[in-house]
Amino acid sequence: MSGPTQPLIRLSTGKPALSALDAVYDRSDELLTRIGLARESFDDPEIFVHAIVMYQFFEEAASAADDPFFLARIGKMIAGSKWPPLVEAADCAVTLGSFLTKLVVVATDHSSSTEHHLDVSGKSGFLFGRRYYDTPFVPAQIDGFFAAMFGEIIKRSIGEKWNPDDVMVTISDPNALPSEFLGCSVLAGDRRGHRVAFPAIWLTEPFSSDDFFKGPSERSGTSLPPKRVIVSVREALKPHIGVQPMNNEIAAGICGLSEQQLSRKLRKEGTSLGKLIAELKCEHAEMLLSQQKASVAEVAEVLGYSDATSFAHAFRGWTGKAPSDLKKQREN
Questions:
Q1: pTM of the full predicted structure?
Q2: The domain that contains 119 carries what CATH number?
Q3: Which of 16, 136, 222, 228 is most buried by its number of CB atoms within 10 A?
């Protein structure tokens, strides 16, 4: 059976990536214009774009964010959220197999660019997506997204029975996933898609929607240990936020390391320097906006944004709200 003539993706599915980009990059609109996308189009669920355009957006967003694991992080985040397709698939599932089967079906509602499959061969189960067309570049980010999302979904579903030695991931560029990704092997494949291989017996494991949507600390009853490098960097940078311009190079200098050294240390703890700076800027912005005398334009200037609009886009990416909404909330 031949695939559709045009590989299309629902543009609104890229909104989490745009929000994440806004949080760490203040020229998102310039990037969108260069690719030929309009910000407001991401809010229309009826708009579809060619897969190559979407893949290009993901690749350039990762480059702008200076984060090779940009889409993988989003995939992992979505896997642990109450994303509507996940909730729909989990609703009546009683085993991991029934959950993944429904999820594969739901995925086709949002894209005609990739055919998703759940197969069993002997003792192995395979969750994979295949494209029927060639891409002009290695679609590393989108493959990283799917591998991270499906891998995390399986891990959360299996719980204590998860064994990374029993799992193998194949994507177009293994560098799109952190080296410690789920603790399992990651292999290089072609440009046609991703694959997660795991023991087929896992598909028979009971599935609980309530357990799946709990966080790690809720499931284990213990909290995660503090990440010491992150804490140290936050303490070092926080006094400088709003006092001087802040970017990755300046932040690294404050910490007494090269940008590459600091980024490497933070990457091992599952974050990036850009993300950490964005979190500190968000905290500082919320503090300033809670003071009724500080206008949105003034906060934008303090944080080093070129104008209030750029700051507003970033703030919405951080919090999901407009800065003006926060001011109104504080005034009421």
A1: 0.69
A2: 3.90.1520
A3: 16
The DSSP code sequence of 110-152 is TBSS-EEEEEEETTEEEEEEE-SS--SS--HHHHHHHHHHHHH
Cα 103 to Cα 108, 118, 332, distances in angstroms: 9, 10, 43
Residues 290 and 284: their CA atoms lie apart, in Å, by: 10
At position 24, the amino acid (one-letter code) is V
Decide which of 320 and 72 is more confident.
72
Domain assignment of residue 45, given as a range: 8-204
- Find the farthest-apart pair of alpha carbons in the chain and give their distance in angstroms, rounded: 67
Two tokens, residue 191: 């440009």
- Residue entry with tokens 């998102």: 28
pLDDT digits 0-9 by tens, 249-279 = 888 877 777 888 888 888 877 788 888 899 9
The 8-class DSSP code of residue 49 comes to: E
CB 96 within 8 A of CB 56: no
pLDDT at 27 over 50: yes
